[in-house]
């Protein structure tokens, strides 16, 4: 097998193994999360993101313990704030206006 394919297979096996960890977050660490999604933080930002990640893991565990017929898992947004997720989804609060094109005509 060519070296590139061997490396890809090794990385793929490693990542696939951690995907299962994301479905059962007890064994999924913040360090694994950062490595899986290529995230790099320092200082206070690291602490903030780790705290958000840990809160997301707790929420996933709580939900999955209820046995509702489906499970949640950890994804690349597990260290985002509620405001960051809201902006990603494009939600605008009532009364907000996109000002890029000027005021709306009457």
From TrEMBL:
Residues 30-85 form the Cathepsin propeptide inhibitor domain. It holds the Pfam family Inhibitor_I29. SUPFAM superfamilies: Cysteine proteinases. InterPro entries: Papain-like_cys_pep_sf, Prot_inhib_I29. This is Cathepsin propeptide inhibitor domain-containing protein. It comes from Effrenium voratum.
């Amino acid at each position: 097998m060519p070296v590139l394919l061997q490396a890809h297979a090794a990385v793929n096996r490693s990542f696939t193994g951690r995907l299962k960890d994301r479905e059962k977050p007890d064994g999924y660490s913040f360090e694994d999360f950062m490595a899986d999604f290529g995230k790099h933080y320092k200082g206070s930002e690291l602490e903030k993101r780790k705290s958000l990640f840990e809160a997301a893991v707790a929420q996933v565990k709580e939900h999955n313990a209820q046995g509702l017929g489906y499970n949640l898992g950890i994804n690349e947004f597990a260290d985002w704030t509620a405001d960051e997720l809201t902006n990603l989804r494009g939600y605008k609060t009532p009364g907000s206006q996109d000002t890029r094109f000027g005021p709306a005509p009457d």
